Amino acid sequence: MDVREESRILSEVLAGDVQAYGLIVRRYQEPIYNLMLRMTSSAEDARDLSQETFIRAYNNLDQFRPGARFFPWLYSLGMNLALDFLRKRKRTTDRTLEFDESRFEQSDDGDDPAQLSGIEAEELKRAMDKLPADNREALILRFHEDLSMQEVAQALDISVSGAKMRIHRGLRMLRGFLS
Predict the structure, then answer these.
(1) Cβ 3 vs Cβ 67: under 8 Å
(2) What is the domain partition of the chain in residue ranges?
(3) From first to last of its 179 residues, what are the pLDDT tens digits of the chain?
(4) Domain 3-89 has CATH 1.10.1740.10
(5) Residue-by-residue DSSP string for the chain
(6) Which CATH number fits domain 101-178: 3.30.700.30, 1.10.10.10, 3.40.50.10490, 2.60.40.10?
(7) Rounded to whole angstroms, how far apart are CA atoms 25 and 84?
(8) Quick count: other Cβ atoms within 10 Å of Cβ 82?
(9) Is the dihedral of CA 63, 138, 161, 67 positive or negative?
(10) Distance CA 9, CA 23 (A)
(11) What gap in Å lies between CA 43 and CA 49, rounded to an integer?
């Protein structure tokens, strides 16, 4: 689904076509669920928070900037919901990660994560779990969700240079864990 198609669907939703929102939900339910699962380590909590994310997004569609990609905005809503949930529960969790190392590509700042592609998926998963959450989420958004640096920055509510820094540091830490 490209930006134009998303914009068309969201315009239909804003015009009152509630059924059109189902297309958006189907497109993004898996990445939002995976985010929630990583954050909570609970399938039940992940389902509830995913549903809440889509409800909140629907109720706040008037705040979405037309013409922009929807996923970074949705991801940001979901991330904030998950963080609020964790704060309220006041517990730490093991955050698991479903990460596909084959999705690595050359990043905008010259880092080459493809150098990591020869490692075993389980080893990469363990190394990713060791990363601080901010670096891990930046890497996931960039290389697993294929977002641009601008979109990573938007989803994490940081500057583009901040997003590049998180990705660069995350890759450097990963290399250290894996060497």
Answers:
(1) yes
(2) 3-89, 101-178
(3) 677 888 889 889 988 888 999 999 999 999 999 989 888 888 999 999 999 999 999 999 988 887 788 999 999 899 889 888 887 875 443 333 344 444 444 444 455 454 555 567 778 878 888 888 889 888 888 888 788 899 889 888 899 999 999 999 999 998 898 87
(4) yes
(5) --HHHHHHHHHHHHTT-GGGHHHHHHHHHHHHHHHHHHHHS-HHHHHHHHHHHHHHHHHTGGGS-TTS-HHHHHHHHHHHHHHHHHHHHT----------GGG----TTS--GGGGTTS-HHHHHHHHHHS-HHHHHHHIIIIIS---HHHHHHHHTS-HHHHHHHHHHHHHHHHHHH-
(6) 1.10.10.10
(7) 22
(8) 23
(9) negative
(10) 8
(11) 10
Q: How many residues does the chain have?
A: 179
Token pair for residue 156? Answer: 């994490």
The token pair at 101 is 């190392």
Q: How many Cβ atoms from other residues are within 10 Å of residue 43's Cβ?
A: 11
- CA-based end-to-end distance of the chain: 38
